[in-house]
Amino acid sequence: MLEYSLRELTRRWKRTLITVSGYFAAVTFLCILLTAITGAGRASGAILSSTGTHFIAYTPVCEGGSCPTTILDPEHEGFYVASARTRLMNNSMLATIKTLPSVADAAPFLLFRIRNNEGTASYSIGGLDPEASVATAKNCCAPGDVTEGRFLLPGDDNAVMLEASYATSARLNLNDIVTIGTGAYTVIGIVEPGVRPAKADVYMTIIAAEKIIAPRIQGDFLDNSSLFMIESKSSHLHNRAMADVRRVMGSEALLSSYNCYQPAAKADTITKRGADLAALLVYICIIIFSLQSQLHSVTERKHEIGIVTAIGWSRRDIASQIVYESLIQAFAGWLAGVTVSTSIVALIRLLSPDAAVDFMPEVYVISFILALSSGAIAGLIPGLAAANKKPAECLRKY
Questions:
Q1: pLDDT-derived band of residue 266, with 50, 70 and 90 as boundaries?
Q2: CA 48 vs CA 37, 41, 105, 268, 270: distances in Å
Q3: Contact of 69 with 88, CB cutoff 8 Å
Q4: What's residue 299's pLDDT?
Q5: What is the 3-state secondary structure (H, E, C) of the chain?
Q6: Average pLDDT, integer, range 216-237
């Protein structure tokens, strides 16, 4: 059947060329469209999937004598998140949170409201782990937020960073010496992190913060945090991450997050569905075009179909030949379309290296499946229609 199909396609080369050109145009358009949409979707998806994925978790202050720690000056000092008083949590719980499948990273933070001398205004100190951490960068501050000086490094236990607005109001500058508690600390950086849930006036290492806070409280203190900074794996998993963390920490835990993860997840989903819809529309167009072409071909060949049926060809033989013809045309059009679309993508990358397009093997696999499946459908329907016609009817109506 394959040999007869090739002969028929060669004999009617004009119609063959028209049909192959249709597949060629459709596949070229499909590959370029999917490459552009998928490339843009990946670029925007990387941003959208990580938008609003940070949150903090803490527990409210305990009542009565059940607290393992007591603040010596509760009227002016204490652990706070915004205006809410909080209690310390052991970092062993943080290790469990890090293992959750919905959590990408988690980090400790000591946030303490302090005042140095009687009559002075209170301010907050934040003790963080200066090791690189996504959770710290998203919830608190990062090297990119430094406007002057540098970011804290491991071992900077006698140095601090100041939040920009606090530095301005306190009239402090880079390299100034500030006294906190009984210690003197050098200002090594000014940071402007913007709106972050774990925000302080003065940032320092956890070790430095523990030294300042320890004389101001009674009870267990070391290896504890006042809040946990957490980064979920994506905006799509953010709700699940918060639920998982709440399950680990208990029902009394309070979580604070920004709701921008919800529109980000929705926008990411819309972008991905747009690519699927575009592929579906092109697929439908390919089927309609190829089906129409094959139906015209069968109509023109009624007389020939009647003859081969009369000399002994089975219905299966007739249907198989038409399906083979359709598949060959679909493959030829796909091959030409892939070649041209690949060249266009290469040219775009050459002229505009920053363009969100790249060679994506999955696009060519998808286009191959769509082209061949549409060719099979377009050949099978007319093939079955032709095979079911009686020879006498085909000869008489020709």
A1: low
A2: 15, 10, 18, 6, 11
A3: yes
A4: 58
A5: CHHHHHHHHHHCHHHHHHHHHHHHHHHHHHHHHHHHHHHHHHHHHHHHCCCCCEEEEECECCCHHHCCEEECCCCCCEEEECCEEECCEECHHHHHHHCCCCEEEEEEEEEEEECCCCCCCCEEEEEECCCCCHHHHHHCCCHHHEEEECCCCCCCCCEEEEEHHHHHHHCCCCCCEEEECCEEEEEEEEECCCCCCCCCCEEEEHHHHHHHHHHHEEECCCCEECEEEEEECCHHHHHHHHHHHHHHHCCCCEEEECCCHHHHHHHHHHHHHHHHHHHHHHHHHHHHHHHHHHHHHHHHCHHHHHHHHHCCCCHHHHHHHHHHHHHHHHHHHHHHHHHHHHHHHHHHHHHCCCCCCCCCHHHHHHHHHHHHHHHHHHHHHHHHHHHCCCHHHHHHCC
A6: 86
The model's pLDDT over 134-163, given as tens digits with 9 standing for 90+, comes to: 899 989 999 999 999 999 999 999 999 999
Q: Across residues 327-342, what is the average pLDDT?
A: 86
Q: Which amino acid is at 117?
A: N
Share of the chain above pLDDT 70, in %: 69
Mean pLDDT score of the chain: 78
Give the model confidence (pLDDT) of 373-387 as tens digits: 777 776 666 666 655
pLDDT tens figures, 174-195: 999 999 888 899 999 999 988 8
Tokens matching residue 211: 């030294």
Instruction: With 0.70 as the threshold, say if the pTM is over it.
Output: no
